[in-house]
Design brief:
DUF6144; elongated; alpha+beta; L-2-amino-thiazoline-4-carboxylic acid hydrolase; 185 residues
């Protein structure tokens, strides 16, 4: 059977295959070729449907691992170059976060560094995921945004040593904002 391989949605296909779920893919992605024909809000609903199928077929933890890898790929070289450029232009840690907040203002994002805890708090009041941000928040499958952990890991490991990334809440899980906590080494 053929599945959608390209674009943002194709990352799910790629990482299901890469993690050895070829046999489960038919149950999860059997109608994925129709995805590009859907309007944006319908695409969001379809991603929620796929989340349910993944959790049922491979389990919630395995689905979250697939999503983590999707987020790693989503961050890619352009985001890594972006954060590295800001780091290289900064005179201090404080200056870095001032510049980063200025750049990320268009995404309604606020980064706060806590030097006493050596951690970063991130809050975003707008979903920036191009795969789902045109539809309604998910009602049942709250783990979709786990991909952002992979994204944030790559993003901040470009300039720091990240110990852990936690997503505390997300808009697509029913909260008003997305929040992450990043513990640095």
């Amino acid at each position: 059977m053929e599945y959608l391989e390209g674009g943002r949605f194709g990352r799910i296909t790629k990482h299901l295959r890469k993690q050895g779920y070829e046999n489960e893919m038919e149950d999860i992605l059997h109608d994925s070729k129709n995805f590009p024909k859907l309007k944006k809000p319908e695409q969001t609903k379809y991603v929620e449907t796929v989340m349910g199928r993944m959790e049922k077929s491979i389990g919630k933890d395995n689905a979250e691992r697939v999503l983590f890898e999707c987020g790693v790929q989503c961050c890619g070289k352009s985001w890594s170059s972006f954060v590295k450029r800001i780091w290289n232009q900064s005179k201090s840690m404080n200056d870095f976060f001032i510049k980063l907040n200025e750049e990320e203002e268009r995404y309604n994002t606020q980064f706060t560094y806590d030097p006493d805890r050596n951690s970063i708090a991130i809050e975003r009041s707008k979903c920036v995921c191009g795969l789902i941000n045109k539809g309604k928040p998910f009602k049942t499958h709250k783990s979709y945004c786990k991909c952002s952990i992979g994204h944030m890991s790559v993003f901040f490991n470009t300039v720091f040593n990240v110990k852990e990334v936690h997503i505390k809440q997300s808009i697509y899980s029913g909260s008003d904002t997305c929040k992450w906590h990043i513990q640095l080494k």
